[in-house]
Amino acid sequence: MNFFHDTFRTSFGRFSLAVDESGAVVATAFGSTAALSRRLPACRRMPGSRPHFPSCRSTGGPRHLVPDQARCAPAREQMLAYLAGQRRAFALPLAPHGTPFQQRVWAMLQEIPPGQTRTYGQLAAQLGCPRAARAVGRALATNPLCVIVPCHRVLGARGALTGFAFGQNLKRRLLAFERSVFPAQSGKTTV
Hints:
By secondary structure, the protein is of the alpha/beta class. About 30% of the residues lie in helices and about 15% in strands. The model is unreliable at about 45-60 and about 185-190 (pLDDT under 50).
C-alpha cells in the first residue's frame, strides 16, 4: 500500500500532507516531507522518490511515500482555503491511525469550533474520565492530522499555552488567526 504526499506553501509556512490510496488524509505536518514522515504510521522509500524514509512495519505491512499533487489536490485546496480564512471546516475523508481512546479524543477535537478552545481537563471530563487529562494530552501529542483535527485548540489548566508538535509560537499564531477570522459564537468559548 502507498501513501501519496504533497508539500506546499501557506501563510504559516510549508505544509505537507499525505493521503492513502482511497484519498483519505492519513497525516499532515507543518514543514517538509521529513516532518510528515514522522507522523505516518509506516513508510519506506519508493524507487525514484525522495527523501529516503527508513523501512518499518505496522498493521498493513510496509508502506511507500510517493509524491502526487493530483491525489492530494482536494486536501491541499481545503487546507489553503482554511488557512486563508475562506473555509471554516474541512470536508475530507480522514484515516488517522490510533487506538480507540485516541480516536475518541481526536473525534472530540473536531467538535471544537474555530476561535474556541478547551482544556485537557475539560476534554477528559467530557470523555467521562475526569482524571485522564494526561491521557488526553498524550492522545493529542500523537494526533497525526494537525489543523484538520485541531489539537492546537486545547490549552493547559487555567488557559496556559502548552505543547504543540510544531511549537508554541505556531500554536499561538493559529489561535490568534482563528479568533480574528472565525469569531466565536456568543457564550460558547470556554477558555
